[in-house]
Amino acid sequence: DMLGREGDFIGSCLPSERRLWRELCPDPNLLARVPAQLFPAPPLSVESLLAERRELLGANLSLAYRQPLHLVRGFGQWLFDADGQRYLDAYNNVPQVGHSHPKVVRAVSEQLALLNTNTRYLHEKVLLYARRLTAKLPEPLSVCYFTASGSEANELALRLARAHTGHRDMVVMAGAYHGHTTALIDLSPYKHAGPGGEGTPDWVHVSPVPDTYRGEFRAHPSDPFDPSGNSAPGARYAARVAEVIAAARARGRRIAGYLAETLPSVGGQIVLPEGFLPGVYAAVRAAGGLCIADEVQTGFGRTGETFWAFERYGVTPDILVLGKPIANGYPMGAVVTTPEVARSFANGMEFFSTFGGSTAACAAALATLEVTEEEGLQANAAAVGRHLLRGLQSLAERHPLIGDVRGAGLFLGVELVRDRATLEPAGAEAVEVANRMRELGVLLGTDGPHGNVLKIRPPLCFTAADADFLLDRLETALSDVAAAL
Ligand code: PMP
Questions:
Q1: Is residue 294 in contact with ligand 1, taking CB distance under 6 Å?
Q2: How far apart are CA 385 and CA 327, in angstroms?
């Protein structure tokens, strides 16, 4: 590429101009005669990879961006494609402490070279990790189970809740996603109520997303489109959940638990309104159910002010579900619960997950937690998140396409609308903005029930300079998309 130089640089061009220049320039090797085997192998073309993918992988495995990315390398908050172009990663929260973090890489490779086996043998690493993890949690969350994925952890949480309460039914939030297994599709309205879904099963009760921007109860009572005309949307949404529970009980259904994210992500990057979760947890417990917090997306300092998102609301769940960033990309999930719930689960049936809590996974998780602390990444998420949020709010003053900017720490959402009064969702525009951002070298995604929320959740090593770069590119992308309308 242009190697960051202003203007021209002899012998280099953008990858998109490569074909043109190859046709115009004589091949210097006609003179130089460097043996072909000394040239690096040309990267596989995007077309050939796409063709193979179509042949070998399931057709509903989705691919990000209109122009798919062929990534070959990652470091920190940067990803590099086969052409050597770099992209600022503002989307992937799995590499919590940064892609290929040397300390995590070293911890995993040293452990793999020494021993990697399951939890049926004694080993100090799983205990060390459980000790460090529970030290970050309030009482009585003190008993750990390790799994190989977030889905597996949510499945286990469901079993714990059923074993403890003796009930079967669950309450979830509309638009939620909790994993890809059969039971979790049932618990994920995003899937079972979406394309290809078979609807909500009888044992699942869906409550509204407490969205104070476009939901039934809004944060701004002066809003002429607010049907509630009432403040305290949190308490009013909590009352809706209590109604869902009451309606289920009136039909003779018994609630084993309430499963929800503490900052709904697929639901649209929503910060729960004040008073919502305390009200919901009280109603669930009054019905004999357990409160399960899915923090697969939001745990480990991402939301800035608190290490766990549930702490910002002053509640403690009975079961906490963790995954994604826990081991910086090494497969791992965890369920942490109370001794009382753990006792109910130990009913004679063995619990075992072959890969869950393997020695290498624990080495990765331990290193990830250590780096999170050593590099002050929670404080960084808070500071850079605030800076980015302010920048996005200032963009909103210039770009009418932005309807709402929200989130906490480095877990942000930018909701795009066609009309700020009617809130008509700008889903197609959001897709265009994300694709334009990819062309401009910044990766982010879209989400929300209308697909109109730009999702920003970078590795936690994201800096203020990265945030400024993102804001600069977003300014261009929003202008370009608005101009093309
Ligand atoms: N819960 C939430 C909130 C998630 O976002 C995801 C994954 N996107 C899962 C659970 C499932 O995790 P996994 O893909 O590791 O099974």
A1: yes
A2: 22
Return d(Cα 477, Cα 482) in angstroms, integer: 8
CA geometry: angle 404, 412, 475, nearest 5 deg: 65
**449 vs 115, 265, 267, 364, CA distance in Å?**
44, 10, 6, 34
pLDDT tens-place values along the chain, 485 residues long: 455 666 666 767 778 888 888 888 888 889 989 898 887 777 788 999 999 999 999 999 999 999 999 999 999 999 999 988 999 999 999 999 999 999 999 999 999 999 999 999 999 999 999 999 999 999 999 999 999 999 999 999 999 999 999 999 999 999 999 999 999 999 999 999 999 999 999 999 999 999 999 999 988 655 444 455 556 899 999 999 999 999 999 999 999 999 999 999 998 999 999 999 999 999 999 999 999 999 999 999 999 999 999 999 999 999 999 999 999 999 999 999 999 999 999 999 999 999 999 999 999 999 999 999 999 999 999 999 999 999 999 999 999 999 999 999 999 999 999 999 999 999 999 999 999 999 999 999 999 999 999 999 999 999 999 999 999 999 999 999 999 98
Count of Cβ atoms closer than 10 Å to residue 473 Cβ = 20
- Give the number of the atom of ligand 1 that is nearest the alpha carbon of residue 149: 15
Q: Is 295 in the pocket of ligand 1 (CB under 6 A)?
A: no
CB of 76 closer than 6 A to ligand 1?
A: no
203-222 in b/e burial notation, b at 16+ Cβ within 10 A? Answer: bbbbbbbbbbbbbbbbbeee
Q: Which atom number of ligand 1 is nearest to the Cα of residue 154? A: 10
Residue 151 Cα to ligand 1 middle (Å) = 6
| 411 in contact with ligand 1, CB cutoff 6 A | no
Residue nearest to ligand 1 atom 2, measured at CA: 178
Q: Pairing between strand 169-173 and 204-207?
A: parallel
Q: Which atom of ligand 1 is nearest to the CA of 152?
A: 16
Probe target for ligand 1 pocket from 172, 178, 328, with the most ligand atoms within 8 Å of CB: 178
Q: Using a 6 Å cutoff on CB, does residue 178 contact ligand 1?
A: yes
Report the atom number in ligand 1 closest to the C-alpha of 324. 15
Rounded Cα distance between 62 and 11, Å, is: 37
Between the alpha carbon of residue 454 and those of residues 51, 89, 264, 351, 449, the distances in Å are 29, 14, 14, 39, 12
- Taking the C-alpha atoms of residue 159 and residue 131, their distance in angstroms, rounded to an integer, is 24
Q: How far, in Å, from the CA of 216 to the mean position of ligand 1?
A: 27
Closest CA to 261 of 382, 132, 401, 157: 157
